[in-house]
Write a structure and sequence with these properties.
single chain, alpha+beta, four-stranded antiparallel β-sheet, 7 helices, about 15% helix, F-box-like_dom_sf, F-box protein At3g23960
């Protein structure tokens, strides 16, 4: 083999285009350390063009599952009982990696929302699993009537009962490339607010992350059909700036009843969607909600035997049955969510 002679001190020049392509393949946590190389590198990595390319590229690196598992052992952390362990499952190589999580997420009970562009909403906490960083959302600004009830019940973020609910949903508005948090508080008409109209029993706000950290009143009302029977948000999924919420109704029944309510982060309006299969929602269990091919998907039914895709959300909503080979564990374990 012929040895190539050259000066090792001669710097090798790599075009910025190739460099950006290389950086896009580096895991996010490792990528942050490259910002220290120089101001130019930091500027490139923080630039909107690279951020957008990295975000789009992350969707092509294979499907992963963020798994939250209840902790069966009696373990204490900072004086509080540990409730959950977190894992990251790679569906391509079947690897399972324990995931570090902040103590507050290991010890608190909360609804685990669907990941949105790498972030997860855990009640009033936004979690970045890759960086293991969290931010706490600022306090909301409910109307005086709702605020009085909330204070009397000493309600905490994300808490709900048959009388009052307080829920958070994370979304990403593609048109402006911003994360937004949608929050809705609803109070039962029997909570001593008989003089207040039903429209004022629900209060919806939106917060744009990285902006002025102020909640904005959407001034939009729930569909009339839900005003008196709204229970709480059982689950949700955000796709292309629209949040699809599974609403558990506040109805005295031995079996649960649901409705599907969407909220458009750009237009700031609600839309009530039908359940697939023409069902009324009584006794129909929803085993999985998520995104499949850019569309809202449900595993719906007593046995979770059918996967439905929302093909058209306008004009009343149109559903089709999808031939999707879901792993059996996805149907039976609602704590598994696609990242």
């Amino acid at each position: 083999m012929k040895r190539i002679k050259g000066n090792l001190d001669t710097p090798i020049s790599i075009s910025e285009e190739i460099l950006l392509q290389i950086l896009q393949e580096i895991p996010a946590k490792s990528l942050m350390s490259f910002k220290c190389v120089s101001r130019h590198w930091c500027s490139m990595i923080e630039g909107q063009e690279f951020v957008d390319a990295f975000r789009v590229g992350s969707h092509k690196r294979g499907t992963k599952l963020l798994v939250r598992k209840s902790c069966s052992q009696d373990i204490m952390i900072d004086g509080r009982r540990k409730n959950y362990d977190f894992f990251l499952v790679n569906l391509q190589d079947k690897s399972v990696v324990p995931l570090a999580a902040p103590v507050i997420l290991q010890t608190n009970q909360f609804i685990l929302g669907q990941p949105v562009e790498g972030l997860v909403c855990c009640n009033n906490i936004i979690w970045n699993p890759t960086m293991n960083e969290t931010i706490t959302l600022p306090q909301r600004n409910p109307s005086s009537d709702l605020k009085k009830v909330i204070e009397n019940m000493t309600i905490q973020a994300g808490k709900h009962s048959w009388s009052i609910s307080s829920d958070y949903c994370l979304g990403f508005e593609v048109s402006i490339k911003k994360y937004k948090v949608f929050s809705i508080t609803h109070v039962d008409v029997g909570m001593g607010l008989s003089t207040v109209s039903t429209e004022n029993l629900s209060y919806a706000e939106v917060l744009t992350l990285g902006s002025n950290n102020f909640w904005k009143n959407t001034k939009c009302s729930l569909p009339q059909e839900l005003c008196k029977i709204f229970g709480f948000v059982d689950n949700y999924c955000s796709i292309n700036g629209i949040i699809y919420m599974i609403i558990r109704l506040r109805i005295s029944s031995s079996v649960p009843e649901y409705r599907i309510l969407s909220f458009d982060l750009s237009r700031e309006n609600f839309q009530l969607l039908p359940l697939p299969g023409g069902g009324g929602g009584t006794g129909s269990y929803i085993h999985f909600t998520g995104e499949v091919g850019g569309r809202f998907a449900l595993i719906h039914g007593a046995e979770g035997e059918k996967t439905w895709l929302l093909e058209e959300c306008f004009q009343g909503g149109k559903w089709i049955v999808a031939d999707t080979p879901w792993p059996e564990c996805w149907r039976l374990n609602p704590e598994m969510i696609v990242t």
